[in-house]
Protein backbone atom coordinates (compact mmCIF):
# COMPACT_ATOMS: atom_id res chain seq x y z
CA UNK A 1 0.00 0.00 0.00
CA UNK A 2 2.78 2.35 0.97
CA UNK A 3 4.60 1.74 -2.27
CA UNK A 4 1.47 2.35 -4.27
CA UNK A 5 1.03 5.71 -2.59
CA UNK A 6 4.53 6.74 -3.52
CA UNK A 7 3.99 5.95 -7.14
CA UNK A 8 1.65 7.31 -9.75
CA UNK A 9 0.85 5.99 -13.18
CA UNK A 10 -0.76 7.70 -16.16
CA UNK A 11 -2.57 5.79 -18.87
CA UNK A 12 -2.98 7.85 -22.02
CA UNK A 13 -4.96 6.74 -25.04
CA UNK A 14 -2.86 6.96 -28.17
CA UNK A 15 -5.54 8.59 -30.29
CA UNK A 16 -4.04 11.93 -29.32
CA UNK A 17 -0.68 11.15 -30.80
CA UNK A 18 -2.23 11.12 -34.26
CA UNK A 19 -2.27 14.88 -34.05
CA UNK A 20 1.54 14.72 -34.06
CA UNK A 21 3.54 17.16 -36.15
CA UNK A 22 5.06 14.30 -38.11
CA UNK A 23 1.83 13.57 -39.94
CA UNK A 24 1.92 16.98 -41.55
CA UNK A 25 4.54 15.89 -44.07
CA UNK A 26 1.86 13.88 -45.88
CA UNK A 27 0.43 17.03 -47.46
CA UNK A 28 1.21 17.79 -51.13
CA UNK A 29 4.60 19.34 -51.85
CA UNK A 30 3.28 22.44 -53.61
CA UNK A 31 1.14 23.27 -50.61
CA UNK A 32 4.17 22.92 -48.33
CA UNK A 33 6.26 25.11 -50.63
CA UNK A 34 3.57 27.81 -50.74
CA UNK A 35 3.20 27.71 -46.96
CA UNK A 36 6.97 27.97 -46.49
CA UNK A 37 7.34 30.88 -48.93
CA UNK A 38 4.53 32.83 -47.30
CA UNK A 39 5.96 32.16 -43.84
CA UNK A 40 9.53 33.11 -44.76
CA UNK A 41 8.28 36.24 -46.50
CA UNK A 42 6.33 37.32 -43.44
CA UNK A 43 8.80 36.52 -40.69
CA UNK A 44 12.23 36.27 -42.34
CA UNK A 45 12.18 38.90 -45.09
CA UNK A 46 12.30 36.35 -47.93
CA UNK A 47 11.59 37.79 -51.38
CA UNK A 48 10.30 35.18 -53.83
CA UNK A 49 11.93 34.99 -57.26
CA UNK A 50 9.12 36.46 -59.39
CA UNK A 51 8.97 39.71 -57.44
CA UNK A 52 12.74 40.13 -57.48
CA UNK A 53 13.42 39.49 -61.14
CA UNK A 54 11.87 42.73 -62.37
CA UNK A 55 13.92 44.93 -60.09
CA UNK A 56 17.34 43.45 -59.61
CA UNK A 57 17.93 40.59 -61.99
CA UNK A 58 18.90 42.66 -65.04
CA UNK A 59 22.64 43.37 -65.55
CA UNK A 60 24.65 40.64 -67.18
CA UNK A 61 27.93 41.00 -65.29
CA UNK A 62 29.49 38.17 -63.30
CA UNK A 63 28.93 40.02 -59.99
CA UNK A 64 25.31 40.76 -60.91
CA UNK A 65 24.74 37.11 -61.74
CA UNK A 66 26.27 36.09 -58.43
CA UNK A 67 24.08 38.59 -56.59
CA UNK A 68 21.05 37.38 -58.51
CA UNK A 69 21.80 33.79 -57.54
CA UNK A 70 22.09 34.76 -53.88
CA UNK A 71 18.89 36.79 -53.68
CA UNK A 72 16.63 35.24 -56.30
CA UNK A 73 17.66 31.63 -56.84
CA UNK A 74 16.82 28.49 -54.93
CA UNK A 75 19.91 29.22 -52.79
CA UNK A 76 18.13 32.25 -51.34
CA UNK A 77 15.15 30.10 -50.38
CA UNK A 78 17.37 27.46 -48.80
CA UNK A 79 19.32 30.12 -46.90
CA UNK A 80 16.06 31.47 -45.48
CA UNK A 81 14.92 27.97 -44.52
CA UNK A 82 18.26 27.51 -42.73
CA UNK A 83 17.83 30.85 -40.95
CA UNK A 84 14.35 29.83 -39.86
CA UNK A 85 15.63 26.44 -38.65
CA UNK A 86 18.35 28.22 -36.64
CA UNK A 87 15.72 30.45 -34.99
CA UNK A 88 13.72 27.40 -33.95
CA UNK A 89 16.71 25.35 -32.79
CA UNK A 90 16.11 22.81 -35.58
CA UNK A 91 18.72 20.96 -37.60
CA UNK A 92 19.94 23.45 -40.26
CA UNK A 93 19.39 21.42 -43.42
CA UNK A 94 17.81 24.10 -45.63
CA UNK A 95 15.16 21.52 -46.55
CA UNK A 96 11.46 21.60 -45.72
CA UNK A 97 11.55 18.73 -43.27
CA UNK A 98 8.49 17.55 -41.35
CA UNK A 99 9.69 19.37 -38.22
CA UNK A 100 10.34 22.58 -40.14
CA UNK A 101 6.83 22.56 -41.62
CA UNK A 102 5.32 21.68 -38.24
CA UNK A 103 7.10 24.67 -36.68
CA UNK A 104 5.77 26.92 -39.45
CA UNK A 105 2.22 25.76 -38.75
CA UNK A 106 2.32 26.52 -35.04
CA UNK A 107 0.62 29.68 -33.74
CA UNK A 108 3.29 32.22 -32.99
CA UNK A 109 4.33 35.70 -31.99
CA UNK A 110 4.10 38.34 -34.71
CA UNK A 111 7.61 39.70 -34.21
CA UNK A 112 9.78 39.11 -37.25
CA UNK A 113 12.77 36.87 -36.64
CA UNK A 114 14.80 38.68 -39.30
CA UNK A 115 14.47 42.23 -37.99
CA UNK A 116 17.67 44.01 -37.16
CA UNK A 117 17.11 45.43 -33.71
CA UNK A 118 20.64 46.68 -33.23
CA UNK A 119 21.79 46.84 -29.63
CA UNK A 120 19.23 45.59 -27.11
CA UNK A 121 17.07 48.37 -25.74
CA UNK A 122 16.01 48.38 -22.12
CA UNK A 123 14.07 50.50 -19.68
CA UNK A 124 16.12 52.77 -17.46
CA UNK A 125 13.39 52.96 -14.77
CA UNK A 126 13.06 50.04 -12.41
CA UNK A 127 9.35 50.73 -11.82
CA UNK A 128 7.21 50.54 -14.95
CA UNK A 129 3.57 51.46 -15.31
CA UNK A 130 1.03 49.58 -17.43
CA UNK A 131 -2.55 50.05 -18.41
CA UNK A 132 -5.18 48.13 -20.45
CA UNK A 133 -6.95 49.68 -23.35
CA UNK A 134 -9.59 47.27 -24.53
CA UNK A 135 -10.77 48.25 -27.99
CA UNK A 136 -13.60 45.99 -29.06
CA UNK A 137 -14.59 42.95 -27.07
CA UNK A 138 -12.53 40.16 -25.63
CA UNK A 139 -14.67 37.09 -26.28
CA UNK A 140 -15.58 34.90 -23.37
CA UNK A 141 -13.13 36.45 -20.90
CA UNK A 142 -14.15 38.50 -17.92
CA UNK A 143 -12.08 41.67 -17.34
CA UNK A 144 -11.12 40.31 -13.92
CA UNK A 145 -9.70 37.15 -15.58
CA UNK A 146 -7.78 39.27 -18.06
CA UNK A 147 -6.30 41.40 -15.28
CA UNK A 148 -5.35 38.31 -13.28
CA UNK A 149 -3.63 36.67 -16.27
CA UNK A 150 -1.57 39.81 -16.90
CA UNK A 151 -0.69 40.26 -13.25
CA UNK A 152 0.58 36.70 -13.04
CA UNK A 153 2.53 37.10 -16.28
CA UNK A 154 4.31 40.22 -14.93
CA UNK A 155 5.05 38.32 -11.74
CA UNK A 156 7.21 35.75 -13.54
CA UNK A 157 9.51 38.56 -14.73
CA UNK A 158 9.54 40.56 -11.48
CA UNK A 159 10.46 37.45 -9.45
CA UNK A 160 13.83 37.25 -11.21
CA UNK A 161 14.66 40.96 -11.72
CA UNK A 162 14.64 44.17 -9.65
CA UNK A 163 11.72 45.43 -11.82
CA UNK A 164 8.31 46.43 -10.47
CA UNK A 165 5.06 46.97 -12.34
CA UNK A 166 2.30 49.35 -11.31
CA UNK A 167 -1.16 49.19 -12.85
CA UNK A 168 -2.71 52.51 -13.86
CA UNK A 169 -6.42 52.67 -14.51
CA UNK A 170 -6.55 56.06 -16.20
CA UNK A 171 -3.35 58.02 -16.61
CA UNK A 172 -0.85 57.35 -19.36
CA UNK A 173 1.56 54.49 -18.77
CA UNK A 174 4.87 53.13 -20.12
CA UNK A 175 3.18 49.98 -21.37
CA UNK A 176 -0.27 49.96 -22.97
CA UNK A 177 -1.78 46.51 -23.38
CA UNK A 178 -4.66 46.20 -25.84
CA UNK A 179 -6.74 43.77 -27.88
CA UNK A 180 -6.94 44.73 -31.56
CA UNK A 181 -8.48 43.40 -34.77
CA UNK A 182 -7.00 43.18 -38.29
CA UNK A 183 -5.28 46.37 -39.42
CA UNK A 184 -4.90 48.44 -36.27
CA UNK A 185 -2.61 51.19 -37.46
CA UNK A 186 0.90 50.01 -36.60
CA UNK A 187 1.77 48.40 -39.94
CA UNK A 188 1.42 44.85 -38.57
CA UNK A 189 -2.15 43.71 -39.24
CA UNK A 190 -3.55 40.79 -37.29
CA UNK A 191 -4.68 37.77 -39.29
CA UNK A 192 -7.91 36.63 -37.58
CA UNK A 193 -8.04 33.27 -35.83
CA UNK A 194 -4.75 31.36 -35.54
CA UNK A 195 -1.40 32.32 -37.06
CA UNK A 196 -0.13 35.38 -35.24
CA UNK A 197 -1.60 35.66 -31.76
CA UNK A 198 0.07 38.82 -30.48
CA UNK A 199 3.01 41.15 -30.87
CA UNK A 200 4.89 43.65 -28.73
CA UNK A 201 7.25 46.58 -29.09
CA UNK A 202 10.71 46.96 -27.63
CA UNK A 203 11.21 49.47 -24.78
CA UNK A 204 10.87 53.13 -25.80
CA UNK A 205 8.57 56.12 -25.81
CA UNK A 206 5.12 56.21 -27.46
CA UNK A 207 4.25 52.78 -28.85
CA UNK A 208 7.50 51.40 -27.34
CA UNK A 209 6.83 48.63 -24.83
CA UNK A 210 3.17 48.31 -25.88
CA UNK A 211 1.56 44.89 -26.36
CA UNK A 212 -1.20 44.02 -28.84
CA UNK A 213 -3.24 40.80 -28.69
CA UNK A 214 -5.27 39.60 -31.68
CA UNK A 215 -8.84 40.16 -30.42
CA UNK A 216 -10.19 37.48 -32.77
CA UNK A 217 -8.44 34.58 -31.04
CA UNK A 218 -10.18 32.17 -28.74
CA UNK A 219 -8.53 33.52 -25.56
CA UNK A 220 -8.93 31.45 -22.42
CA UNK A 221 -7.53 31.12 -18.93
CA UNK A 222 -7.30 27.31 -19.12
CA UNK A 223 -5.85 24.75 -21.53
CA UNK A 224 -8.54 25.15 -24.21
CA UNK A 225 -8.02 27.68 -27.01
CA UNK A 226 -5.10 30.03 -26.45
CA UNK A 227 -4.06 30.68 -22.89
CA UNK A 228 -3.78 34.43 -22.40
CA UNK A 229 -1.31 34.14 -19.53
CA UNK A 230 1.13 31.99 -21.56
CA UNK A 231 1.13 34.38 -24.51
CA UNK A 232 1.38 37.41 -22.20
CA UNK A 233 4.54 36.07 -20.50
CA UNK A 234 6.25 35.85 -23.91
CA UNK A 235 5.06 39.27 -25.11
CA UNK A 236 6.02 40.96 -21.83
CA UNK A 237 9.52 39.55 -22.42
CA UNK A 238 9.66 41.63 -25.64
CA UNK A 239 8.26 44.63 -23.76
CA UNK A 240 11.29 44.37 -21.46
CA UNK A 241 13.63 44.17 -24.46
CA UNK A 242 14.20 40.44 -25.01
CA UNK A 243 14.41 38.99 -28.51
CA UNK A 244 13.42 35.48 -29.59
CA UNK A 245 15.42 32.53 -28.31
CA UNK A 246 16.12 29.33 -30.29
CA UNK A 247 15.91 27.32 -27.04
CA UNK A 248 12.71 25.24 -27.36
CA UNK A 249 12.31 25.30 -23.58
CA UNK A 250 12.45 29.10 -23.38
CA UNK A 251 9.39 31.27 -22.99
CA UNK A 252 11.02 33.51 -25.63
CA UNK A 253 10.89 30.75 -28.30
CA UNK A 254 9.15 32.24 -31.39
CA UNK A 255 6.09 30.00 -31.05
CA UNK A 256 4.27 29.67 -27.76
CA UNK A 257 4.51 26.88 -25.25
CA UNK A 258 1.10 26.09 -23.90
CA UNK A 259 1.42 24.10 -20.73
CA UNK A 260 -0.78 24.26 -17.67
CA UNK A 261 -0.55 27.27 -15.41
CA UNK A 262 1.13 25.48 -12.54
CA UNK A 263 3.86 24.06 -14.77
CA UNK A 264 4.56 27.31 -16.57
CA UNK A 265 7.86 28.91 -15.63
CA UNK A 266 10.70 30.89 -17.16
CA UNK A 267 13.52 28.69 -18.39
CA UNK A 268 17.14 28.97 -17.30
CA UNK A 269 17.87 30.77 -20.59
CA UNK A 270 15.06 33.32 -20.12
CA UNK A 271 16.27 34.15 -16.61
CA UNK A 272 19.88 34.42 -17.75
CA UNK A 273 18.91 36.77 -20.61
CA UNK A 274 16.69 39.07 -18.55
CA UNK A 275 19.16 39.25 -15.66
CA UNK A 276 21.88 40.23 -18.11
CA UNK A 277 19.76 43.29 -18.91
CA UNK A 278 18.38 44.24 -15.51
CA UNK A 279 20.39 42.40 -12.88
CA UNK A 280 19.16 40.19 -10.07
CA UNK A 281 16.46 41.07 -7.51
CA UNK A 282 17.43 41.88 -3.91
CA UNK A 283 15.70 38.67 -2.75
CA UNK A 284 15.35 35.69 -5.03
CA UNK A 285 12.19 33.85 -3.98
CA UNK A 286 11.72 31.25 -6.70
CA UNK A 287 9.89 28.11 -5.58
CA UNK A 288 11.57 26.01 -8.26
CA UNK A 289 14.89 26.68 -10.02
CA UNK A 290 14.44 27.69 -13.68
CA UNK A 291 14.81 24.52 -15.78
CA UNK A 292 17.61 24.05 -18.29
CA UNK A 293 16.73 22.55 -21.65
CA UNK A 294 18.60 19.28 -22.15
CA UNK A 295 20.88 19.21 -25.18
CA UNK A 296 20.12 16.30 -27.46
CA UNK A 297 23.78 15.78 -28.34
CA UNK A 298 25.16 16.18 -24.81
CA UNK A 299 27.41 13.11 -24.27
CA UNK A 300 26.34 13.01 -20.58
CA UNK A 301 22.63 13.04 -21.38
CA UNK A 302 20.74 10.17 -19.76
CA UNK A 303 17.09 9.81 -20.73
CA UNK A 304 14.37 9.37 -18.11
CA UNK A 305 12.57 6.82 -20.28
CA UNK A 306 12.45 5.49 -23.84
CA UNK A 307 9.44 3.85 -25.44
CA UNK A 308 7.94 2.86 -28.73
CA UNK A 309 4.83 4.78 -29.76
CA UNK A 310 3.24 3.32 -32.86
CA UNK A 311 5.97 3.64 -35.51
CA UNK A 312 8.05 6.11 -33.54
CA UNK A 313 10.60 5.80 -30.77
CA UNK A 314 10.13 8.43 -28.08
CA UNK A 315 12.90 9.56 -25.73
CA UNK A 316 11.83 11.34 -22.54
CA UNK A 317 13.92 13.77 -20.50
CA UNK A 318 12.69 16.32 -17.91
CA UNK A 319 9.83 18.29 -19.55
CA UNK A 320 10.71 17.17 -23.07
CA UNK A 321 10.41 14.32 -25.51
CA UNK A 322 12.24 13.63 -28.76
CA UNK A 323 10.36 11.67 -31.40
CA UNK A 324 12.16 9.60 -33.96
CA UNK A 325 10.12 8.33 -36.91
CA UNK A 326 11.58 5.79 -39.39
CA UNK A 327 10.34 7.81 -42.39
CA UNK A 328 11.87 11.14 -41.34
CA UNK A 329 15.49 11.93 -40.66
CA UNK A 330 14.93 14.87 -38.30
CA UNK A 331 14.07 14.27 -34.68
CA UNK A 332 11.52 16.64 -33.22
CA UNK A 333 11.64 17.97 -29.68
CA UNK A 334 8.41 18.89 -27.90
CA UNK A 335 7.08 19.41 -24.41
CA UNK A 336 5.58 16.19 -23.03
CA UNK A 337 2.60 18.32 -22.01
CA UNK A 338 2.01 19.42 -25.58
CA UNK A 339 0.79 15.88 -26.27
CA UNK A 340 -0.34 14.69 -22.84
CA UNK A 341 -1.41 17.60 -20.65
CA UNK A 342 -1.68 15.44 -17.51
CA UNK A 343 1.65 13.67 -17.70
CA UNK A 344 4.24 15.24 -15.37
CA UNK A 345 7.87 15.98 -16.17
CA UNK A 346 10.76 13.77 -14.96
CA UNK A 347 8.92 10.50 -15.48
CA UNK A 348 10.53 7.24 -14.38
CA UNK A 349 9.24 4.90 -17.06
CA UNK A 350 7.00 4.80 -20.11
CA UNK A 351 5.76 2.01 -22.28
CA UNK A 352 3.29 1.46 -25.06
CA UNK A 353 0.42 -0.92 -24.47
CA UNK A 354 -0.04 -2.08 -28.06
CA UNK A 355 -3.24 -4.07 -27.39
CA UNK A 356 -4.88 -1.22 -25.53
CA UNK A 357 -3.53 1.46 -27.90
CA UNK A 358 -2.31 3.38 -24.91
CA UNK A 359 0.85 4.78 -23.36
CA UNK A 360 1.63 4.13 -19.71
CA UNK A 361 3.77 6.50 -17.68
CA UNK A 362 5.21 5.94 -14.23
CA UNK A 363 6.61 8.42 -11.77
CA UNK A 364 7.28 8.64 -8.09
CA UNK A 365 9.08 5.45 -7.23
CA UNK A 366 11.59 6.34 -4.60
CA UNK A 367 14.94 4.72 -5.29
CA UNK A 368 15.88 4.38 -1.64
CA UNK A 369 16.81 1.45 0.50
CA UNK A 370 13.12 0.99 1.21
CA UNK A 371 12.52 -2.64 0.30
CA UNK A 372 8.83 -2.24 -0.48
CA UNK A 373 9.57 0.43 -3.04
CA UNK A 374 12.21 -1.65 -4.73
CA UNK A 375 9.87 -4.59 -5.03
CA UNK A 376 7.20 -2.39 -6.53
CA UNK A 377 9.67 -0.94 -9.01
CA UNK A 378 10.67 -4.44 -10.10
CA UNK A 379 7.04 -5.38 -10.61
CA UNK A 380 6.61 -2.40 -12.88
CA UNK A 381 9.70 -3.31 -14.85
CA UNK A 382 8.47 -6.89 -15.31
CA UNK A 383 5.12 -5.63 -16.48
CA UNK A 384 6.86 -3.50 -19.04
CA UNK A 385 9.09 -6.32 -20.18
CA UNK A 386 6.40 -8.93 -20.74
CA UNK A 387 3.69 -6.72 -22.17
CA UNK A 388 5.98 -4.52 -24.25
CA1 LIG B 1 -4.32 35.64 -35.36
CA1 LIG C 1 4.45 52.75 -24.57
ZN1 LIG D 1 7.84 37.00 -29.80
ZN1 LIG E 1 -0.13 45.98 -33.28
Describe this structure in words.
This is Neutrophil collagenase. Its main location: secreted. InterPro entries: Hemopexin-like_repeat, Hemopexin_CS, M10A_MMP, Pept_M10_metallopeptidase, Pept_M10A, Peptidase_Metallo, Peptidoglycan-bd-like. Belongs to the peptidase M10A family. This protein is α/β, with parallel strands linked by helices. Among the domains are: 2-17 and 303-387, no CATH class; 127-278, Collagenase (Catalytic Domain) (3-Layer(aba) Sandwich). It has eleven helices and 15 strands. It has a six-stranded mixed sheet with strand order 2-6-7-5-3-4, covered by helices on one side. Strands 10-11-12-13 form a four-stranded antiparallel sheet. It has a three-stranded antiparallel sheet with strand order 1-15-14. Helix 4 packs across helix 5 (74-87) and helix 7 packs across helix 8. The longest helix has 17 residues, at 371-387. The structure holds calcium ion (2 copies) and zinc ion (2 copies). One calcium ion binds next to strand 6.
